[in-house]
Amino acid sequence: MEDKERYMTLNVQWKKKCSIQMSELTFKDYSVMLHRYKILLGISGTVNSILALALISLILMVLCPPEWLKYQENCYWFSNEMKSWSDSYMHCLGRNSHLLVIQDQLEMAFIQKYLRQSNYVWIGLNFTSLKRAWTWVDGSPLDQKRFFVKGPAKVNSCASTKESKIYSESCSSVFKWICQY
Question: How many CA atoms lie within 13 A of 59 on its CB side?
């Protein structure tokens, strides 16, 4: 019984102390609490904004625009009209992309699967007079262990693909092309 009375007494004293402390809060105290609350809201808003931007970035990285095909980390667009290599190159630049740069045989197989017919198609490979070598539009050299170009390697030669092979053609020839980003 004594413990019960002691508990009741301590509980009443604690409640009185809390109500006195609450009534002693000044306008300045409320102002400080409000300022801290606003800071916390600002921080949580910033964190939410960062998370939303990260989500949007992930969505954009995963999705390709309409009429583009997704394969691994890239998007591909297959033309229906025919142009010279340089006109095809410029068309891709206008779409914020570049002519196709083939990384490996798996990518080549993907490309061949989606070519609508077996005609030649421009890719982003040309023979540069300065380097006197086959060079991809991203500046990297052709790995001749990975891909072999059939035909002469000479100035004004650009590359096309047909049936998983790469051919040397005059850059002024007109073919369909593939843009990539």
Answer: 6
